[in-house]
Specification:
The protein has three domains: 1-11 and 171-281, 2-Layer Sandwich (Zincin-like), CATH 3.30.2010.30; 27-164, Nuclear Transport Factor 2, Chain: A; 289-413, no CATH class. 43% of the residues lie in helices and 15% in strands. The protein has 14 helices and nine strands. The strands form two sheets. The chain has a five-stranded mixed β-sheet, with helices on both faces. The longest helix has 24 residues, at 49-72. It binds zinc ion.
Amino acid sequence: MLRILLPALLIAGLIGTVVRFGREGEEAAANPVAASVSVPAPSTATATVAVKDTVRASIAEVMTRQGAALLAGDRKAFVGVAAPSAKDSVAWLDDRFTTLRAMGVTRWTVTVGEVRSSAKYWEAGVDVEYCFVANCVKPLKAGLSTHWNVGYGTRTEITEIWDRVVGRTIHPWAQSKLTAVAGRRVVVAAPAALAARMPRVLATAEAAAKVADGFAATDRPGRYVLYLAGEKEWDAWAYGDEGSWVDGYANADSEAVVVRASALSSADLGMLLRHEFAHVASLVGRSVAVSNADAWWLKEGLADYAGFGPRSFGSFPRRTETAAFVRKGWNGDLRVQAPGQKASDRTASARYGVAYLGVQCLIQRYGQSRATSFVQAVAVQGVTIEIAAARSLGATWKTVNSTCATQIRKTVG
Ligand SMILES: [Zn+2]
């Protein structure tokens, strides 16, 4: 997460909340056509295991067919899984078709979970794996919640569908109708009002992605997804606790970065994107159990290093506040903590500055590859810093810290 000179916190825990889309009234499901019932009307009493298996298979068949329609570009078949009377669901699916096709979806694989019956409808959670690049090795994940009429009349059909949170946010593609342009490493998606700005942003983003790829500890992202948010979308796609000063954030699990359109006029868009894409590249698969205490300086230091690049302290944009903090206030521990929520801009920037100098020292002393592995071990896998130092850097943490602390004090002068 970042404002040009003030990156903040990023990538946090996985909090499940539910936002509903396409919520239908109960009427459609409450008045099923009772003819030719191959499956009993849903009720707790009749929902035996065998019935549930039949219902689940029927839903899976419809959803699988719908995925094939998406990849084949068949809008009618994709949207047609919803009951015509379920107008919100029809509209929601139509927007998803437009958006996912524009973004170049290449895979859409569904797994239907447990089905449950209520008095009026069948309910099923659906897990989706999808990609925005051909032959992707790490599919992205989405979750859908669905309500169904099963076997009433002639077909099994959706009466409600909405996106379920996987991770911390609802994917922007599931919330807004978007247009998109794709390059080799990045797809840029935005509401139509921002479409004119996408080509210029894509060029900057492609260059940023090349830098960020160098910080991937394992597989590099399939294709970075960059969402441009107008003010309305910025509110709707909120990550959670970003302040009004934040211009962008990364969501490594969806290989996505969201940037506020008002930040685009900044000459430092490249820096912003290198920073956020580096988060995506370096933090994929981060465990929610990993403590931020040892990891914050590594996450933000690495992202800032990708953003600013190796440079002399004299040309470091955070020089003044960082030097003041190092000379008075810093205790010599590389593990600087995240700025508090009420920290001043200057205080926050100083902490990012020390994190940058710490990671720059790791890279200078041990090389980018070993330093990136070290960040991966501590910030993604949650390995203790002592064990990670020995494994990745071949030195004790005590030695690493004292070596780099000495270098930082000397650099700052
Ligand atoms: Zn950041």
